[in-house]
Write the structure tokens for this entry.
Amino acid sequence: MALGALKAGSANLAVANTGVADSVDPDVPSGTQCYAWAFAKAGDAPIVHSETRRFEGGRNRVRRESAHYALCRVPALWQQLADGSL
């Protein structure tokens, strides 16, 4: 999803997430969220970083904390990209 969003637009960053906010799948714990951050670098192939995290609480809390986490990770990942460690 993140790579598709990056390729479809002119941005140099795209963030995507998917997961379950409540108990809908017996094989996946409630609150499990998977993320992908895709970064475009001029002349280079996109760089993608992915993580899976689990959040506690009800559906709305999981969704809110998940969105917050995705956005708060951007500065650290951007720095890792600049340092060459991503």
Observations:
- Strands lie at 13-19, 32-39, 47-54.
- Residues 2-83 form a domain with the Maf protein fold (CATH 3.90.950.20).
